[in-house]
């Protein structure tokens, strides 16, 4: 039988992971990247003897594919993808490709905010319970690479809407949806409905024997559920209302109820404070209850879970001013949670590439908690217009070092300095991680 030919667009983590798995499964593989491929990835491709090209897409080669795996960062609208679709060649995501080659059970986590913390939270509990599990998707090694190289019983996958856009048969046993707020609308023709539908693809192949865990306080989620058929069993969680099945708060205790079994834990015992973290904990505890993990193990893991780098991460206290790195806040809603959790007067560093942000929701919090704003973006006009009248000082800066020095000047004893950009990172930084690291470096250099 002739080998099936797969073309992989994008030579990053997901692309190279897919190449490893495809090669192992006997595919003929060609990797094509419009940009440069990092040396560490080239070495892997050379080692597994896969053909690759960079800084170009050779159309003749690509259109010979029987199936194409597209990196999540490449929009559907680029010419080569349009040509593939017009030719009827399936264009799928790494998640779709890899899931066909594993018999492990899958927990898929998506949402505009909270998905990384919730994914790591669930993985942490599974590991504490000695369950043989892998974590992949947007975190850790690529899913395809792990499927090729390891054998586990469970995968916890953090899934972006872009990854879900490329699924056909992918079906998680447990789906978690943490939140839906306008984000990445530039990729969805500025349509919130299209973006929301893309998040809900996580449950499209689920059946009545699967489970769907979601935030019942989020109207963008509950409105969709009212209007659409949902096959899996629903386990909502809420800070506001008691749930028959699912998780809720009762006198500052998290309660998780499934099949008449109940798990309780005081929110004061969670390492991660703030309402949004209580919700992330509820989602993780619900998964743990479903897997019948011992209550003692769930409790212990929830008490010692440290959270995620670049998400409300306390860096240093200097002259009694706390510096906090929330570089992972790449949209307004994430920054809303950050500002909501601030207990001191705050100097706020904000800005980057605006993905169509509307800042209105932040106004009450800025009025209440923010004393000064430091802009760190290419075009700060929207930020200046939105908050110019609410704070004593608003300044524009050109680098992270400059922004941190300015914050140091503006902050007084007892204040906090918060990097929570509400935007994607731009040319000054490779990505939000790099932005967060530069912030921490600049703080340490004060």
Automatic annotation (TrEMBL):
Binding annotation for ATP: 111-117
Keywords for this protein: ATP-binding, Cell cycle, Cell division, Cell shape, Cell wall biogenesis/degradation, Cytoplasm, Ligase, Nucleotide-binding, Peptidoglycan synthesis
Pfam families documented for this protein: Mur_ligase_C, Mur_ligase_M, MurD_N
Reaction(s) catalysed by this chain's protein: UDP-N-acetyl-alpha-D-muramoyl-L-alanine + D-glutamate + ATP = UDP-N-acetyl-alpha-D-muramoyl-L-alanyl-D-glutamate + ADP + phosphate + H(+)
Localization per Swiss-Prot or TrEMBL: Cytoplasm
HAMAP family: MurD
Protein name as annotated: UDP-N-acetylmuramoylalanine--D-glutamate ligase
Lineage: Bacteria, Pseudomonadati, Bacteroidota, Flavobacteriia, Flavobacteriales
């Amino acid at each position: 039988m002739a080998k099936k030919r797969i073309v992989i667009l994008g030579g990053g983590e997901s692309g190279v992971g897919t190449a490893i798995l495809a090669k192992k499964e006997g595919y003929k593989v060609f990797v094509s990247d419009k940009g440069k491929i990092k040396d560490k990835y080239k070495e892997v491709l050379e080692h597994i003897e896969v053909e690759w090209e960079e800084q170009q897409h050779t159309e003749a080669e690509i259109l010979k594919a029987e199936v194409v795996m597209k990196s999540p960062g490449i929009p559907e609208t680029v010419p080569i993808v349009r040509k593939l679709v017009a030719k009827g060649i399936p264009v799928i995501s790494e998640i779709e490709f890899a899931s066909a080659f594993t018999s492990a059970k899958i927990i898929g986590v998506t949402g505009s905010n909270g998905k990384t913390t919730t994914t790591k939270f669930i993985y942490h509990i599974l590991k504490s319970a000695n369950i043989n599990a892998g974590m992949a998707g947007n975190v850790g090694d690529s899913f395809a690479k792990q499927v090729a190289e390891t054998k586990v019983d469970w995968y916890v996958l953090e899934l972006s809407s872009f990854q879900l856009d490329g699924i056909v048969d992918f079906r998680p046993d447990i789906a978690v949806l943490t939140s839906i707020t306008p984000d990445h609308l530039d990729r969805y023709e500025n349509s919130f409905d299209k973006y929301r539908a893309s998040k809900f693809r996580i449950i499209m192949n689920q059946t009545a024997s699967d489970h769907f865990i979601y935030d019942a306080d989020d109207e963008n989620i509950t409105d969709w559920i009212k209007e659409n058929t949902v096959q899996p069993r629903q386990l909502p969680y809420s800070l506001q209302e008691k749930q028959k099945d699912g998780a809720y708060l009762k006198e500052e205790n998290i309660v998780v109820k499934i099949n008449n079994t109940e798990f309780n834990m005081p929110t004061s015992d969670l390492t991660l404070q703030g309402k949004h973290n209580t919700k992330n904990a509820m989602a993780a505890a619900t998964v743990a209850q479903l897997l019948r993990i011992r209550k003692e193990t769930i409790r212990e893991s929830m008490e010692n879970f440290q959270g995620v780098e670049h998400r409300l991460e306390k860096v240093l206290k200097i002259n009694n001013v706390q510096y906090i790195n929330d570089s992972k806040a790449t949209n307004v809603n994430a920054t809303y949670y950050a500002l909501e959790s601030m207990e001191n007067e705050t100097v706020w560093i904000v800005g980057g590439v605006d993905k169509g942000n509307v800042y209105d929701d932040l106004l009450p919090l800025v009025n209440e908690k923010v004393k000064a704003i430091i802009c760190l973006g290419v075009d700060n006009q929207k930020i200046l217009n939105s908050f110019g009248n609410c704070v004593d000082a608003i300044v524009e800066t050109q680098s992270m070092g400059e922004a941190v020095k300015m914050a140091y000047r503006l902050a007084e004893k007892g204040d906090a300095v918060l990097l929570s950009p509400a935007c994607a990172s731009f040319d000054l930084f490779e990505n939000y991680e790099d932005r967060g690291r530069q912030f921490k470096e600049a703080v340490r250099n004060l």
